[in-house]
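Sample intake sheet
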Amino acid sequence: MTSTHHDDALIRRVAADLRTLTRLLDEAGHPAEHGILGGEWGYGADHVGATFEMHPFWWGECTCGFDDSEWEWEDAHPHADTCYQAELGRRGWPEAPVDLAAVAREWGLPEQGCGVHCTCGQQAAWQEWVAAHGHDPACPVVRPNFHHPGTGVTVRWYKYIGRGMELVGVTEQTWARAFADAVAEVTALTGPAAP
């Protein structure tokens, strides 16, 4: 349950509040996801409302078509024959074992793994293309698990609430407001309930 630049107490509070919110959403008719490791209310529920949205971790494929477009772009823009990446392919990588460190040394490149070196410019062109043609923000592959537009707070987790959480725009104050707004919205759907 870690996140950079946030203390453990705040991370634990956000996780506990998200579990509470999941329970409230489930009781309001927005069925919660269930599993074992995250506990009874540890996976989130689908809800898009006036003040916040929440979604469980997405296990599926891209729904906006970007992944298919990305594959098409890569097929249409291969590395040049003179590129380090093409050399790896000639040596059989990734199907065959290749001493990647030795190949990097031969090419005068740092020994930092295989996919970090492109000597023909294809990688830079791909990064520019991705920046201009990325996933639709509503695609479940990239949308946050929790978002409160009023504060800019976003929270993402891996598989279940609390695991690999990334908090953006979260301070004690912004989280208190985001959570209070979310509880008020759900309470308005169901009537008063104890958080």
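Comment: DSSP finds six helices and five strands in the chain. The mean pLDDT is 89.
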